[in-house]
Amino acid sequence: MGKKVMKLFLDTMLRAAVIILAVAIVVMLVLLARTVSKSKKSDASDTGNKTSIVTEESDPSDPTFGGSGDAADSSDTSADDSSQDASTEDANAGNGKDAKVVVLNASGVSGVAATWQTTLTADGYTSVDIGTYDNGDQSTTVIYTSDSYDVSGLVSLLGGAATADRSDIDSSVASDVDISGADIVVVIGVDNAANN
């Protein structure tokens, strides 16, 4: 009699374990399906914000990387790629997103430049380097740029940051990054240490 009770108990426990496992699998699949559908919706809404980053492999016409400088000589560049790159360049022309940007942390808070680098890259800026401002903490954020770039979007993103001429900032203010070739230098002050 004891063996029958024990066998019945074990069978019941095994069935309960299988049912619990099946319910757990169904719940996980439902959660996975929801996550995937949210991800697809998010990707669909972000498709208009994607930009094309040209690398040396994908732009053999660039003489900087050993190309001939004549896009017509490139046999592996398709017309679709050329039109997509041209439309991206047209969209970014003059707005600063195609400029070489350097973000310097002058806030005294560690990691701020890296956080702003991520924010700017997500906003479509294609070349963003970071470093530390060596001349002490600054209370306000300043964007140093030349007249050839419209930085109104960047000013807005940085909460109304001040602007100054690119020539007003010396290359010696950052020892960990070379800003001499930068088109735009953003010095993040204390006012933007926690704003992104």
TrEMBL record:
Q: Does the keyword Transmembrane apply?
A: yes
Q: What is this protein called?
A: LytR/CpsA/Psr regulator C-terminal domain-containing protein
The keyword Transmembrane belongs to this UniProt entry's keyword annotation? yes
Spell out where the chain crosses the membrane: 12-33
Q: Which InterPro entries match?
A: LytR/CpsA/Psr_C
Give the span(s) annotated as Disordered.
41-94
Protein keywords? Membrane, Transmembrane, Transmembrane helix
